[in-house]
Design goal:
Blueprint: H1 2-47, H2 55-67, E1 74-79, E2 84-87, H3 100-107, E3 111-114, E4 125-133, E5 136-144, H4 146-166, H5 168-194, H6 205-222, E6 226-233, H7 236-243, H8 245-260, E7 267-272, E8 275-281, H9 285-302, E9 308-314, H10 322-339, E10 344-346, H11 347-350, H12 359-371, E11 375-383, E12 388-397, H13 407-417, H14 420-433, E13 443-448, H15 450-454, H16 462-469, E14 477-482, H17 489-501, E15 505-511, H18 517-523, E16 528-531, H19 533-538, H20 543-559, E17 562-565, H21 571-578, E18 593-594, H22 606-611
Helix pairs in contact: 1-2, 1-4, 1-5, 4-5, 7-8, 8-9
């Protein structure tokens, strides 16, 4: 009898330990799953914020709802830099956190653990899950008093003691068959919700990384192919802003349906915003291209006018590494968006010329585009014949909060990843917002990327309306076209002609820098030709540069365009562009207008720019 009691006590103690651990693990997973569902709700609310509303305000409302639950002691929403963007305790907003929550935001991997600083009643439990919303990577952390978990375990212990009086084997069977099944069903349902994108029904960001790691492990172990495609909807933000969020949601659901209707075995995900991914196991690059072309055809049939950019990479080219696989697919996608010549770009086909953009820099660019505003400075352009200001060029500068060294790094990255036209749009909008005080009888020079014309971003009366809202007229605006090579020259020429017919003046920028500006100059009339600073700076000492200068001046003058020399920084350069020297010392065509630090530095408003002029 004594042996039986001892055995029963021993088995009971072991069972209690096992069950307590099981309950603790299941409870933590259940809480993480519920929190993933909350994070998905926050991401959806931020993405659907109305025009004029801050996405973080939508997040704050849901944070307040979560914080009101009896089992919650605190809630924070933190970005990758550790800055608190929403919190149950609003005094925490703007503070900078460190530790596990920042790691979750950066890596996209959920975690749970005890609070680092314990209270008298013990350390709270912290649950942290990642989310991506409004172009930002964030982490949601919920604090829960440990007593909630302790109460669950205590309840289980009481059940075990009670059932133990009747019979431990029966109690264990009842617990696992009844309570365990209920807990398992609830846990499985919460996990499924947390891994599903609510709008499209596809797997979400977390589901993608779980599946990618799993499929990559299988592909590496069994040495079979695994291909990743990253799909982006071109200009979705501007489409969403102009046509409304309901239309944008229909587009997202349509793309999801087109992808999901593909081959059995392929896994489709919505990574966030307008970005999707497809994992294609046991598929080489040729097979992936065929499958993706079919998906594009389905998307075009249901959503005419929507343009996709698709980047593709294969695991073997990434050395079996999932992070590198994603990065290579992103780079290929950037190239597809940049060229507009091909919907699908495979990384292996561009790897010799591709430069991997740092993910943090790309995310910063995305944040800036989502922010939708740039700082602007105005640099005077002088009429050298009349000795008066001809106009001001609006120069965009990134705010320091985004971490770019200057506009050069920003626009170079935007060009590389295919966002130059979006950045150009934001720069133009920011400049017009500050242009209400343009002095009379002067012009405002605004930079325009040919990509904006290729993508019809100035179609119709879009630009006329924007200029009118700033209190200006089209004849006061000069659109500076950078002379980068364009694959749709005929379309760009038509757009330039249309804009000129609306009253806008056209300038060709950076002429002589070795791009395709003269081709545009031959194809359509322009009002101004701006000679690149590299030609102006080299001409005093370089016969070849001087020849380019003279040739551009002669050709532009013959077409009726006014020549502007950029980058004038000293008196020697100024004297040269006024009357370029020649071998026979005969006077030649001179430059009518000039721009550069010698003549005036950029300033935040027109009055300061004029005051800084020489």
């Amino acid at each position: 009898m004594a042996a039986a009691v001892v055995t029963l006590l021993f088995v009971g103690a072991a069972a209690e330990t096992i069950v307590s651990r099981t309950v603790r693990g299941a409870f933590v997973e259940e809480q993480l799953a519920d929190q993933r569902a909350d994070a998905a709700s926050i991401a959806r609310a931020m993405a659907q914020a109305d025009d004029g509303e801050e996405p973080v305000d939508e997040a704050q409302e849901l944070v307040d709802v979560i914080a009101a639950r009896p089992s919650v002691a605190g809630v924070e929403l933190v970005d990758v830099d550790g800055r608190v963007v929403a919190a149950a305790d609003r005094t925490q907003i703007g503070e900078v956190e460190q530790g596990p929550i920042v790691e979750v935001a950066r890596t996209g991997r959920a975690s749970a653990g005890a609070e680092t600083e314990a209270h008298e009643s013990g350390a709270d439990l912290e649950y942290r899950v990642p989310l991506e919303a409004a172009g930002r990577r964030l982490a949601l952390e919920t604090d829960q008093p440990r007593r909630v978990l302790d109460a669950r375990i205590t309840a289980v212990r009481r059940q075990l003691v009670t059932l133990g009086l009747v019979g431990l084997p029966v109690a264990l069977v009842v617990f696992f068959l009844v309570g365990g099944r209920h807990l398992t069903r609830r846990h499985a349902s919460a996990v499924e919700r947390s891994l599903t994108d609510a709008l499209t029904g596809l797997g979400n960001h977390s589901a993608f990384y779980e599946a990618a790691e799993r499929e990559a492990a299988l592909a590496n172990r069994h040495r079979h192919d695994l291909t990743l495609a990253v799909i982006d909807i071109d200009d979705f933000k501007f489409c969403n802003d102009r046509l409304g969020h309901d239309y944008g949601d229909r587009v997202l659901r349509g793309i999801a349906s087109a992808l999901a209707a593909g081959r059995r075995g392929d896994a489709c995900f919505r990574l966030g915003g307008d970005e999707f991914a497809v994992l294609l196991p046991h598929t080489d690059l040729l097979g992936a291209r065929v499958a993706l072309e079919s998906a594009v055809e389905r998307a075009n049939a249901s959503l005419p006018g929507i343009h996709l950019s698709i980047g593709v990479s294969v695991l073997s080219s990434a050395g079996g590494d999932v992070a590198l696989l994603r990065e290579q697919a992103d780079v290929a996608g950037y190239e597809a968006k940049r060229t507009t010549a091909s919907v699908i770009v495979i990384f292996d086909e561009i790897s010799s010329s591709a430069t991997l953009a740092h993910p943090e820099r790309v995310r910063a660019l995305g944040d800036l585009i989502e922010h939708g505003e740039l700082d602007v400075a105005f640099q005077p352009i002088w009429d050298l014949d009349r000795n008066e200001v001809l106009g001001y060029e609006a120069l965009a500068r990134p705010s320091a909060q985004f971490g770019f060294k200057g506009p050069g790094e920003l626009f170079e990255l935007a060009e590389k990843v295919g966002n130059a036209h979006q950045l150009c749009e934001i720069a133009r909008r920011s400049a017009l917002r500050c242009a209400g005080d343009l002095p009379p009888r002067t012009l405002l020079f605004l930079n325009v990327s040919p990509k904006s014309l290729e993508r019809n971003m100035l179609a119709g009366t879009t630009l006329v309306d924007a200029v009118g809202s700033a209190g200006l007229a089209p004849h006061q605006i000069v659109l500076e076209l950078t002379e980068h090579v364009t694959t749709r020259l005929r379309h760009v020429v038509r757009e330039i002609s249309r804009l000129r017919s609306l009253g806008f003046k056209i300038a060709l920028d950076d002429v002589g820098a070795g791009n395709a500006g003269l081709e545009l100059l031959c194809s359509v009339g322009v009002d101004f030709v701006k000679i690149d600073r590299s030609v102006v700076s080299s001409a005093p000492d370089d016969a070849s540069a001087l020849g380019v200068l003279e040739a551009v001046i002669a050709y532009a003058t013959r077409t009726g365009a006014t020549v502007i020399a950029e980058g004038i920084e000293n008196e020697t350069q100024l004297a040269l562009v006024r009357e370029p020297a020649t071998a026979d010392h005969a006077p030649r065509h001179s430059v009518r207008a000039g721009q550069g630090f010698l003549l005036g530095r950029p300033a935040s408003d027109f009055a300061d720019a004029a005051a800084l002029s020489h």
